[in-house]
Amino acid sequence: ELFRHHIVMNSLVQTRIVDGLLMLIEKERQGDAVDRTLLKSLLRMLSDLQIYRDAFESKFLQATERLYGAEGQKLILEQEVPEYLHHVEKRLDEEYERLLHYLDPSTKWSLIHTVEKQLLSEHLTTILHKGLDSLLDENRVTDLTLLYNLFTRVKKGLVELCAMFNAYIKK
Fold first, then answer.
1. GO molecular-function annotation terms (predicted)?
2. How many whole angstroms separate alpha carbon 31 and alpha carbon 157?
């Protein structure tokens, strides 16, 4: 309790800890190797002190939203649909790895929802207009399967997919 009160509840110390954690996670998301054991220990400490949610989680989810919002905007314009879908799948896998290795399980739903929203939900129509017809024309079953599996994860994903598929059939 003394440690919690004098060290971690000190706003300057708490801010430095959280900023350091966010910086390490950002580095890992950029492909750098980080000390996951250190991340796990620090995040477990925040959890044990019952300040994980208030001190860390909201800032972490905001950083996640900013990162994947910008990344989605950029890559949807630069990449072909199959490449983009594989990127989304890779990013989701990476976030599941973070959950497995060091993030608190309570963060799971919010984290995955944030990634899906920024990389998929925000771009459903663009993905379909840009790539569905060619995937169907070229009978790219593997890419269509990935498209379907990703779209089932987000609200209105299947509704949009069905509408575009119906339009394709009527052509």
1. ubiquitin protein ligase binding
2. 29
Helix (H, G, I), strand (E, B) or coil at 93: helix
**Tens of pLDDT along 157-166?**
999 999 999 9
Name residue, tokens 């017809």. 133
Report the percentage of the chain scoring pLDDT > 70. Answer: 95
Q: How many domains does the chain have?
A: 1
| Angle of helix 81-101 versus helix 124-137 axis, rounded to 10 | 120
Three-point CA angle 36, 27, 66, nearest 5°: 115
Torsion of CA 5, 8, 11, 14, to 10 degrees: -170
Q: Which of 41, 39, 49, 63 is nearest to 8 (CA)?
A: 49
- For 48-86, how does the pLDDT look when each residue is reduced to its tens digit (9 = 90+)? 988 899 999 999 999 999 999 999 999 999 999 999 999
What CATH number does the domain containing 103 carry? 1.20.1310.10
User: Domain range spanning residue 88?
Assistant: 2-170
Rounded Cα distance, 89 and 67, in Å:
16
The stretches of 30-156 forming alpha helices (DSSP H) are 36-48, 58-78, 81-101, 108-119, 124-137, 141-151
